[in-house]
Design brief:
497 residues, alpha/beta, 9-stranded mixed sheet, 4-stranded antiparallel sheet
């Protein structure tokens, strides 16, 4: 019986090895010991995503399906409500207050102390990953030269555009601040081409562990979409977000400075020009279009057998107002400006979870290091979300911190939002009872302890704007607010345009 037993044992071992190899091939593993990474970025995407519940009508079936098979964070926030500073923070692992990069410039590699800083793609590359990138990952053309990526696809672009702007806006009539429907094809859009390149690379079935970063431009303005996407949303006022007309009466004057003289329009203009509904529908339509492109990439991942051995992380660089707080655009420290979708799915991640613990985009770098079994870089200021990816109820002691311009910070815990501006003025909101942030409670003596606790998380380092900073940089010195080098008179920062 022993020879038969040995024969059966050897056959059973052979069966296990064969099954393992087959499963590896079916999952796209091909014997690799580390998971692939699909890194999906969306530009200016607020919480108008199905699983986040930011807008009751929004249709994002592909992102919601990804959220359903992974861990979806409902309380994730950016480090800066502006593209360059937010993306720089995520990719370097450093806070804006630690780099001095608060605006659309500079590129961090132009600062001597950060010239050799190891970014997320470089960290992965140093550990055997082949790095691919297409679309908008860093801001503009930043990151498309040098040693960040091995393979580059098309960069970020609007794609098809009307011959002239559809909407005339104040403050210079900025060419990007536009929206609406016009006759064009989805295939002519920049985001379609970005998705197509990513699909093509996945169809090549890369054999090395890969880090594929795919950055979509929409719903960043100009929000152009074809009729099929507009038709998803009613052309009536039922699409408008809820607001309060007196919402800014209890916010500090400095909150207006934060949104001073930007190309993004205020609600007053939208209503006077009968454009509020059009902008809302344009943003929703653009969001649904981008969701469809996310779906194309995820379908290619599965079709090529990579879905079982690929970590998918989906995020947006910051939120966007569309009438809330009487403004549009970014550049604020409220939830509408900071809250973003953040989803992890794949090996090592529990599926079907929704996590309400505070999370930061800064956490992505250390989290991916943990999921891939890599040694953590010493300079990282974020904290791994691995405990929450295994159990969404795991405690987390750190809040999410957003910084905009020098010495202005928002601290978001699970139940509260605290804001402190450079002039010392404050806001406090009970996010459980008042998710719209309509009632500023900072003056209530009974909540002094809550404020003190949140104040304790404010960054200790607050670097002045880095050399080469430009655009949207506001500073506060000697009791005076300065915008792009010019002092703002006390009576200037008034609502309206």
């Amino acid at each position: 019986m022993k020879p038969l037993h040995a024969f059966l044992s050897l056959n059973f071992l052979f069966f296990l090895l064969s099954s393992s190899l087959l499963n590896a091939q079916e999952s796209g593993d091909s014997g690799k010991t580390r998971p692939n990474i699909l890194f999906i970025a969306i530009d200016d995407q607020n919480d108008w995503i199905g699983y986040l519940g930011g807008h009751p009508m929004v249709k994002t079936p592909n992102i919601d399906r990804l959220a359903g098979r992974g861990t979806a964070f409902t309380n994730a926030h950016c480090q800066s409500p502006l593209c360059n500073s937010s993306r720089t923070s995520l990719m370097t692992g450093l806070r804006p207050s630690s780099t001095g990069i608060y605006g659309l410039a500079p590129w961090f590699r132009n600062l001597p102390e950060f010239k050799n800083l190891v970014t997320l793609p470089q960290h992965l590359k140093a550990n055997g990953y082949r790095t691919y990138s297409t679309g908008k990952i860093y801001h503009g053309r930043y990151g498309r030269k040098g040693a960040e990526f091995d393979v580059l696809g098309p960069g970020s672009s609007v794609g098809a555009r009307p011959k002239k702007k559809l909407v005339t806006t104040p403050f210079g009539n900025h060419p990007l601040v536009d929206w609406g429907e016009f006759p064009h094809k989805d295939e002519d859009k920049g985001d379609w081409k970005v998705a197509s390149w990513a699909v093509k690379e996945l169809d090549k079935k890369p054999q090395e562990p890969f880090f594929l970063s795919v950055g979509f431009f929409l719903p960043h303005v100009p929000c152009y979409a074809t009729k099929k996407w507009f038709d998803l949303y009613p052309d009536d006022d039922s699409v408008l977000p809820k607001i309060r007309r007196d919402d800014r009466k209890d916010t500090p004057r400095f909150s207006w400075y934060m949104h001073w003289y930007l190309p993004e329009v205020r609600l007053k203009f939208l209503e006077e020009s009968n454009q509020w509904r059009n902008l809302v529908r344009s943003y929703l339509a653009s969001t649904s279009f981008v969701d469809s492109q996310v779906g194309r990439v995820l379908d290619a991942l599965k079709r090529n057998g990579f879905d079982k051995n690929t970590i998918v992380v989906l995020w947006s660089d910051h939120g966007w107002h569309i009438g809330e707080k009487l403004i549009t655009g970014k550049n604020t420290l409220w939830d509408d400006g900071t809250r973003v979708p953040l989803v992890f799915a794949g090996p090592g991640i529990k599926g079907g979870q929704v996590c309400s613990k505070p999370a930061e985009l800064l956490d992505i770098y250390p989290t991916l290091s943990d999921l891939c079994g890599l040694k953590q870089r010493a300079h990282l200021e974020g904290h791994s979300l691995l405990p929450q990816l295994r159990d969404a109820s795991s405690p987390r002691k750190w809040p999410a911190i957003t910084t905009h311009n020098h010495d202005n910070h928002g601290v978001r815990s699970e139940d509260w939002r605290y804001i402190r501006y450079a002039d010392g003025s404050e806001e406090l909101y009970d996010m459980k009872k008042d998710p719209n942030e309509w009632n500023n409670l900072a003056a209530k003596p009974s909540l002094a302890g809550i404020i003190a606790t949140h104040r304790g998380f404010l960054p200790k380092e607050n670097r002045k704007p880095a050399p080469g900073s430009r655009s949207r940089i506001l500073t506060w010195e000697n009791g005076k607010a300065t915008w792009q080098g010019k002092e703002i008179a006390p009576d200037e920062a008034i609502p309206g345009q």
